[in-house]
Design brief:
It is built from 22 helices and 78 strands. The chain is an alpha+beta fold. It has 7 domains: 319 residues, Alpha-Beta Barrel (TIM Barrel); 135 residues, Sandwich (Jelly Rolls); 91 residues, Galactose-binding domain-like (Jelly Rolls); 268 residues, Glycosidases (TIM Barrel), CATH 3.20.20; 158 residues, Jelly Rolls (Sandwich); 143 residues, Jelly Rolls; 82 residues, Rhamnose-binding lectin domain (RBL) (Jelly Rolls, Sandwich), CATH 2.60.120.740. It has an 8-stranded parallel β-barrel with strand order 5-6-7-8-9-10-11-12, surrounded by 4 helices. A hairpin with a 5-residue loop joins strand 48 and strand 49. The two termini are 63 Å apart.
Length: 1451
């Protein structure tokens, strides 16, 4: 926090003055202060709004205000609460204004009553009742007779009520000030002379009510006498020019102690020091009244908050929302000191003098010599550290049981059922009359494959077709209008379009408030390329509010009329009412409701609305603006409290997170129960939010319990203190997606992650913090992951750092265990874990810790120019089964879905943009079969053994060379066995418990009952998918153009704009760019004599370059000369190429570049890149060394600087259009406007014929493209991989001599139906006409199942125990949804050979195979073919192992 000033109050004479009594009979004022019963007063006041708390809270809040040194409580009067209908008044409960004032009086404090009755105050409609809107001819807050009538009527009502109770000071009561209007000067100009006339009228009307106390007008410099104009703001000591008359005192009616917060906005935190400074400065400059707005903000219960304002109000005030005291003490001390010298301040003479450039003094001196001095230091550069109270939230009750909840599904109306109709879009507020936040817009449409476009000036819109939700959008506090664009799937005939428009509070300020528009502005349907329908002036049906609101389902007396049902599937459902009961937490601490698992809606407790919630709307740091909601204890009963929620945004009332997580030497314990957990790594920024639910659900269907992710520091803290948690980096949204799927989350904060991510996840700016050395005991840097590999490199500091990191993590008090991967000296209570291809032999360093495998690598990453590694499903399953066989309890696949290194996030260097990892779920989100399916069956088999594995005792039994059984039994008689054969060549047959078992080499059999084999890791029964990349030519969005049009901009090689610097010799590439770009230009020039021999002979000199990495493109005299590059195992490289020189001056321009920064290794942050030598060989004078020449440098390329790929940057240059772009043009930007590919399959970009560069779609970073061919020879790769034996990344490689990455994933959610802007920057030259989109599609499925493959108990997808059925092997084929098996390409029962796509019949073949399979499968989405004698001739080829091979087509 910046300390703006240091201020000292110097008391030359100190005397504690006598206090004051609250009873006053006369209040006047002069130019110095208010005068109460003839005595000038310095008064400290605090705003506490009675309806923002409860009558039960009022005494304590007022008492704390008094203890804090306040003299006055200030409150608005809330017209729309008190007069909900004309002439109908309500002053009950929280609205008991008289009761509130009398409590203040009883505690000996004064009142400032701000009647307004316009108040703003972030209160709906600025405090006006909405019925006022319907008064004919009314215009608010101007010289309008209708408005003045109702305003005067209400003001008189309040004044007379106060008089009747004897509450004005002139009657001996506590009210010493009243306010009319509020901050009117902000809008006065909009009304011209009528505004000035209104000010005069309002002041005269108020004074004419004869209250006997002064009236004030805030921020109103033309306030007529005797009304006092006052200041509102944070710095009135600096900004207030004083009252408009020397006979009026300087009063500060609103000193904003923080500021209100809006949904999607960050809290404004104002320090106690800053508040105190400006209060003291105001007093030093002759101020005499300071009011803290707010002193207690409280809660916007119900629907009282204005537009986008959160339910909690001014939580950072001296008394927080719950009445606690974060800033209270510092201000209390200030008040005591100032009051101790108030006589001198009010009676003395003030003088001001300078003490320096930024320092000054204020002195008050009485004739008798008493003196007070204020010394002000306005130096804003010094820093001060401040402390504040820490709010501790102690969970008391989880609502995690399905049985605790009931639900009521709200009903989406149909057009035909609406009674309100209009031939245009109705304004929302005028239609709902503030009876509800919600208004349904209903329309019957007939349109083929429409795209819906809705423009709204409300706050939220949800669209439904035929009761099915299709999408939603919302605005924000600053930009309230928004557009919702959605492709729509419709039925034949008439379809019902329903749009639910929602307000999040009414507007609260501004001129002509009565004219403010909210609701839908326009609705359009694009039915086809030729047909567009504007529905704005069509016939719409309307329904105000939700059905549940009309039925008042939150009220007890209505429950018998409502069909509540048990909680069903809650995933992403909208418009559901939830109800549960709970007991009141013990004690007297404030009670809050944690709604962090919900989406958007409103909550009631015992029929009292605690307000709106909107968890899904995150701030710029990725957090909900409010997740904790105040439930006043006065709302509660001891038991049987009823909580009702209406959920609009698809939240989950079941809190999936456990209340208690601990561990013992066997496993993690969740709520006291040991758990065997299968985990899957899915990195949120390597996919997109639209993919997250599908990825998580696919993992869950694969038998996964836990999602694991790293946290990517450099994706979140872009510069020190500048955080980003939006889009792909919305960590909270990702975690909630996992939660809503009913799964657990392992959060690997690191924040060093390695992960083949740029710079290991550490922000590059950290490297330039003075004194920083990564990953050692070094004050600026303290983080961790896989540190055990490198600890010894840092010697004693490495050990100290590991201990510090563990202690720091545990001190965060998360309530869950912490782990350290590959950390053999992890201190208690941190758990050390294993990362490897095999972890069955891993043992934690303490017997009290469970055996956890945090990274089982089911594949491996790729590098540009490298090979394509694959790990067989059989070996992955073998490693997992061995881990659990040997006592493991938590296992994680790294990766389960690798995803995409979008933009420049890939590290390495040379890591490809694809991070597919040969994972169970591929880069595009499709299950990789058979790997995904084989592991799914493995998980089911292991889960059958869970209880006895975790709670039984184990015995290891040797069954011969390389074969062993681990047998688990418990006291109940349960038994499970894992039998393994670790021989990597030979199958084995063993005897176990009087039965014979055949084990293929390098396999594990699982026997959940110690009898029946339900799974063997080497026997893959899961189908294999046939996946095709279907090419789609780029389609121009402009249908009037016959061929694709490219817009082109060419960059000039070398320095663009102004050079960044000139230096003799070379600079480090990374230290210069600081990773703001991949690119750094180096240019110099040489002079070639016309007498050079090579000019005469036609030969060419040779350019010789040495570089530490990563790559470069060389240009001479603007012409491309070639590219040099390192690779993923060796970044340094040499470049040797003939170049064309001419007589005279020749410009050498080298574009040096990085391809991702180092991700790991000791002192990896000091590994540099860039040129070390540049020479030219073949000149008359021999070889010229240019290394020490003067080189001119420029960071980045110009198009990148101009942001030609995004938003307004697209217009920063003049593009040249052509339908026949030139080929092989280096340094060229390409732009095309294209349609989205048809269908809903994942999309890639085929860049086979391009060179190297970057790609964007609609401003989103696709990433680096580089179809660089693998440098390995064909013999370095395998045609078939033998799963047997230990795996390493080079064991089963493919792709030798082929492009390392041809296709680049473009998420579907980035596309619009048309008008998509594709931008490329090509570095070295390619053929853009050959660029295509591809659709990744499952086009077929294969199965290969033998008679001896286990299937006991696994045929039924829902089984959780073994059935004593005969083992009946079967083949199971499934096509993607919406497709069917259209043909059987191959079927053979007998001895077929080959693999999917190349099966061959063997010597033994059942001729009926195709007929049997076609009968079972044709025209079905999925089918099962059992290997029984009813289906096949099982007596064929006796003595041989018979199997069924099938290949089917999906279409």
């Amino acid at each position: 926090m910046e300390k703006w000033v240091a201020l000292v109050l110097l008391l030359v004479f100190w005397k504690i003055r006598e206090g004051f009594g609250v009873k006053a009979e006369e209040v006047t004022y002069d130019g110095r202060s208010l005068i109460i019963d003839g005595q000038r007063k310095i008064l400290f006041s605090g705003s506490i709004h009675y309806p923002r708390s409860t009558p039960q809270m009022w005494p304590d809040l007022i008492a704390k205000a008094k203890q804090g040194g306040l003299d006055v409580i200030q409150t608005y009067v809330f017209w729309n609460l008190h007069e909900p209908q004309p002439g109908m008044y309500d002053f009950r409960g929280r609205y008991d204004l008289v009761g509130f004032i009398k409590e203040i009086q009883a505690q000996g404090l004064y009142i400032c009553l701000r009647i307004g009755p316009f108040i703003q105050s972030e209160w709906k409609y600025g405090g006006f009742p909405f019925w006022l809107h319907d008064v004919p001819g009314i215009v608010y807050r101007t010289d309008n007779e209708s408005f003045k009538f109702y305003m005067q009527n209400f003001t008189t009502k309040i004044v007379n009520m106060m008089k009747e109770e004897g509450l004005y000071a002139s009657q001996g009561g506590p009210i010493i000030l009243s306010q009319i209007e509020n901050e009117y000067q902000n809008i006065q100009k909009a009304f011209g002379t009528a505004g000035s006339q209104y000010v005069q009228w309002a002041a005269k009307m108020a004074v004419g009510l004869n209250t006997g106390v002064p009236w004030v007008m805030c921020k109103q410099t033309d306030a007529p006498d005797p009304v006092i104009n006052t200041c509102n703001g944070m710095r009135c000591g600096e900004t207030f020019t004083g009252p408009n008359s020397p006979n009026k005192p300087a009063l500060w009616t609103e000193n904003w102690t923080s500021f209100y917060q809006v949904y999607g906005g960050l809290p404004y935190i104002r320090s106690a020091e800053d508040i105190a400074f400006h209060v003291t400065l105001f007093i030093a400059r002759n101020g005499s009244y300071v009011n803290y707005y707010m002193y207690h903000g409280g809660t916007n219960f119900g629907r009282t908050a204005s537009a986008y304002v959160i339910t909690g109000y001014y939580d950072q005030a001296p008394l927080d929302e719950y009445g606690k005291q974060p800033k209270w003490g510092h201000l209390k001390q200030l008040h005591e000191v100032i009051k101790s010298c108030s006589t001198t301040l009010l009676q003395g003479v003030q003088r001001n003098f300078s003490l320096g450039q930024l320092q000054e003094g204020y002195v008050f001196e009485e004739e008798k010599g008493e003196c007070v001095a204020f010394l002000k230091n306005n130096d804003r550069d010094n820093k001060v550290n401040t402390t504040s109270n820490r709010r501790i939230i102690s969970p008391k009750q989880n609502f995690s049981s399905l049985d605790d909840w009931k639900q009521f599904q709200d009903v989406i109306p149909y057009f035909d059922n609406t009674s309100l109709r209009s031939d245009s879009l109705l304004e929302q507020m005028n239609t709902t009359k503030d009876k509800s936040d919600y208004l349904w817009f209903e329309y019957n449409l007939s349109c083929r494959k429409p795209t819906l476009s809705v423009q709204s000036a409300a706050h939220v819109a949800h669209a439904f077709i035929n009761n099915t939700y299709i999408g939603g959008e919302h605005g924000n506090h600053d930009v309230k209008s928004f557009t919702l664009e959605l492709p729509v799937t419709v039925n034949q005939g008439t379809n019902n379009l329903s749009i639910l428009s929602a307000m999040v509070g009414l507007p609260d300020s501004g001129a002509f408030l009565e004219r403010r528009f909210a609701g839908l502005i326009s609705v359009e349907l694009q039915c086809s390329e030729q047909e567009s329908l504007n529905l704005t002036n069509s016939t719409w049906g309307y329904q105000v509010g939700l059905l549940g609101e009309q039925l008042q389902v939150y009220k007890k007396q209505n429950n018998s009329d409502i069909g509540w049902s048990q909680l069903g599937n809650i995933m992403e459902q909208l418009l559901i009412w939830y109800k549960t009961t709970f007991d009141t937490p013990e004690g007297d601490d404030p009670v809050v409701l944690d709604l962090s698992s919900m989406g958007k809606g409103e909550a009631w407790v015992n029929e009292q609305s605690i307000g709106r919630y909107w968890i899904l709307f995150h701030d710029s740091k990725g957090n909900p603006s409010q997740s904790l909601y105040h439930v006043p204890r006065s709302f509660l009963k001891d038991t049987g409290n009823v909580l009702v929620l209406v959920e609009e945004g698809g939240g989950n009332p079941l809190v999936a997170l456990s209340g208690n997580v601990s561990y013992d030497g066997r496993s993690l314990l969740i709520d006291g129960q040991r758990k065997l957990l299968i985990s899957a790594s899915i990195h949120y920024p390597r996919s997109v939010p639209a993919m997250w639910p599908g990825l998580v659900q696919t993992a869950k269907e694969g038998g996964v319990d836990v999602i694991e992710t790293y946290v990517f520091w450099n994706g979140h803290e872009l510069s020190p203190g500048n955080y980003y948690f939006g889009g792909r980096f919305d960590l909270v949204k990702f975690a909630k997606t996992v939660q809503q799927a009913g799964m657990y989350l392992i959060l690997r904060i690191g924040p060093f992650v390695a992960a083949e991510w740029n710079f290991g996840g550490v922000p590059v700016w950290l490297h330039y913090v003075p004194g920083t050395v990564f990953r050692t005991y070094n004050q600026p840097f303290m983080i961790e992951n896989e540190y055990g590999y490198y600890e010894n490199f840092y010697k004693e500091d490495g050990k100290k750092y590991a201990l510090w990191a563990a202690k720091m993590a545990v001190s965060q008090n998360t309530g869950v265990p912490w782990i350290m991967c590959q950390q053999w000296d992890a201190p208690d209570p941190v758990i050390d874990t294993c990362n490897s291809f095999y972890c069955d032999q891993f043992t934690p360093t303490s017997p009290n810790r469970p055996k956890i495998w945090t990274e089982n690598w089911p594949g491996w990453f790729k590098t540009f120019g490298g090979r394509d590694p694959h790990r067989p499903a059989e070996d992955v399953a073998f490693s997992v089964a061995r881990f659990f066989q040997k006592g493991g309890s938590v296992h994680n696949y790294y990766m389960y879905h690798g995803g995409t290194n979008f933009g420049r996030t890939a590290g390495g260097p040379f890591i490809t943009t694809s991070y597919d990892y040969d994972a169970p779920v591929d880069e595009y989100g499709l299950p990789r079969l058979p790997k995904w399916g084989h592991l799914k069956e493995l998980h089911r088999a292991i889960k059958l053994c869970e209880h006895v594995l975790l709670n039984g005792k184990s015995v290891n039994i040797s069954l011969g060379p390389s074969v062993e059984a681990d047998v688990y039994t418990d006291s109940s008689g349960a038994c499970a066995a894992f039998i393994s054969n670790v021989d990597d060549k030979n199958d084995k047959t063993v005897e176990f418990r009087n039965a014979s078992y055949h084990l293929p080499a390098w396999s594990v059999s699982i026997l959940p009952d110690c009898k029946n084999v339900v799974f063997n890791t080497a026997k893959v029964t899961s189908q294999t998918n046939v996946v095709a990349m279907i090419p789609e030519s780029l389609q121009q969005s402009d249908k009037g153009v016959n061929s694709l049009k490219w817009d082109i901009v060419k960059e000039k090689p070398g320095i663009w704009g102004k050079a960044d610097f000139v230096k003799n010799g070379f600079v480090d590439l990374i230290n210069t760019t600081k990773d703001t770009t991949d690119y750094l230009w180096h240019t110099t020039s040489i002079f070639v004599s016309e007498n050079e021999e090579f000019l005469k002979k036609g030969s060419k000199p040779v350019l010789l370059i040495e570089s530490t990495g990563h790559a470069l493109h060389a240009f001479v005299n603007q012409e491309y000369q070639g590219t040099g590059t390192g690779n993923g195992t060796h970044s340094p490289f040499s470049f040797k190429n003939p170049i064309s020189l001419r007589a005279g001056k020749n410009e050498i321009a080298l574009l040096c570049l990085t391809v991702g920064l180092q991700t790991a290794g000791p002192f990896y942050d000091f590994i540099g890149a860039g040129l070390t030598s540049v020479k030219i060989k073949g000149l008359k004078n021999g070889t010229i060394d240019l290394s020490s020449y003067a080189w001119t440098y420029k960071i980045g390329v110009q198009g990148e600087y101009l942001r030609l790929y995004q938003g307004n940057g697209l217009n920063n240059v003049n593009w040249t259009s052509t339908s026949e772009p030139q080929k092989m043009q280096p340094l060229t930007w390409y732009k095309a406007i294209v349609d989205a590919p048809p269908g809903d399959e994942p999309v890639g970009l085929d860049m086979l014929h391009m060179g190297k560069g970057l790609a964007w779609l609609n401003g989103e970073e696709i990433g680096r493209y580089w179809p660089r061919k693998s440098e390995f020879k064909s013999e370095d790769c395998v045609k078939e991989c033998d799963y047997r034996g230990k795996f390493n990344p080079d064991k089963c490689d493919t792709g030798c001599g082929e492009p390392t990455q041809r296709w680049y994933h473009v998420p579907r959610s980035w596309f619009k139906p048309s008008g998509n802007i594709l931008v490329l920057f090509e570095e070295k030259g390619g053929d853009p006409e050959k660029i295509k989109f591809v659709r990744r599609k499952v086009s077929g499925a294969c199965a290969l199942v033998a008679e001896d493959y286990p299937s006991v108990g696994l045929l039924s997808q829902g089984e959780d125990k073994i059935q004593n059925n005969k083992n009946v092997p079967f083949a199971h084929l499934t096509c993607p949804s919406n497709t069917r098996i259209s043909a059987v390409k191959f079927a053979s029962f007998g001895t077929p050979s080959g693999s999917c796509g190349s099966y061959l019949k063997g010597d033994c073949h059942d001729p009926n195979s195709s007929t049997i399979v076609e009968k079972a499968c044709l025209n079905k989405n999925d089918c099962v073919i059992k290997l029984t004698e009813e289906n096949f001739k099982t007596n064929l080829c006796p003595g041989l192992s018979r199997k069924l091979a099938v290949e089917a087509v999906c279409s």
